[in-house]
Amino acid sequence: MGTAADSFWRYAGHCLADVLFPRVCGLCGSSGLEPGVDLCAGCRHTIDRARAVAFCTRCGTTVGPFGGTKDGCPACRAAHLPTAGFTRVGEFSGGLADLVRMFKFRGGEHLDRCHGDLLGRAIAQVPWFDEVDVLAAVPTCWQHRLRRRFHATSALAPHVARRAGLPLLTLLRRTKGGRHQVGLPKADRIENVKGKFTISRGVALAGAVVCLIDDVATTGATIGECARVLKRAGARRIYAAVVAHAGGLMQTPSDV
């Protein structure tokens, strides 16, 4: 995770670019956007529709109008989850999936503010928002940083913190690499992240309530492993928040 100075200069760069260069929509490419806006009105409406889809507030899976209760949904009701609640911007489908793919894989690094603002607003609207003491981004390992310097979650995290008005701390480290999670079935994803995260040096949680943030959740394996590490380090309660949720009762997309 970058420093506070890094976050400031990244945000300042966005503001300067807004003034000097004509902005285009990050999703459809249409021009004429006002400074500080990343999506045109039509694409904002598309994302708003994705945000309106009902989901399980325990695991994040899309549900029907009566598919989720306080005890969970059919995908998680019988499971013991290390997280106490879940929120998201929307399902990984349609325009939101295209926006996330652009950000993660197709050179759309400039969309970090857009994704961070979307997720920050989602967090600020949940019933447990006032409980949260600190935000923590799901980290990547140094090997990934060597292969590809851009890490989507690290890039959007400062914008989430700014929008939600919550502190962001580097609570976790990924100490081991391994296979990429993309395309792996659930059992392999769980095994692939087991034992690969640790608490950062000098961190003392002592009853803190943490909100874990990530760009995409599929089976929940990575968030679950991070939550267990935080609990062992003394966190009282862990919540999770992602830009998009894929998988669950439905087939997991092969590219996330």
Kindly report how far apart the N and C termini lie: 22 Å
Given this structure, which CATH class is correct? Alpha Beta
Report the average pLDDT across residues. 84
Determine the CATH topology: Rossmann fold
By DSSP, the count of extended strands is: 8
Helix content: 25-40%
Strand order of the largest sheet: 3-8-7-4
Major sheet size, sense and barrel closure: 4 strands, parallel
- Tally of helical segments: 8
Name given to the CATH architecture: 3-Layer(aba) Sandwich
**Low-pLDDT regions:** none
Structural class of the helices, strands and pairings?
Answer: alpha/beta
Element-level helix/strand string: HEEHEHHEHHEHEEHE
What general form does the structure show?
Answer: globular
Strand content: 15-25%
Structural Rg? 18 Å
Q: What is the count of distinct domains? A: 1
What would you say this structure looks like, in words?
The chain has one domain: Rossmann fold (3-Layer(aba) Sandwich). A four-stranded parallel sheet has the order 3-8-7-4, with helices on both faces. A two-stranded antiparallel ribbon has the order 1-2. The chain is of the alpha/beta class. The relative contact order is 0.16. The two termini are 22 Å apart. Helices cover 36% and strands 16% of the residues. It has helices spanning 4-20, 41-51, 94-105, 112-124, 142-147, 152-164, 186-193, 221-232; strands spanning 23-24, 31-33, 85-91, 134-137, 172-174, 197-199, 209-217, 237-245.
Defining key terms:
Rossmann fold, 8 helices, four-stranded parallel sheet, two-stranded antiparallel sheet, 256 residues, globular, alpha/beta
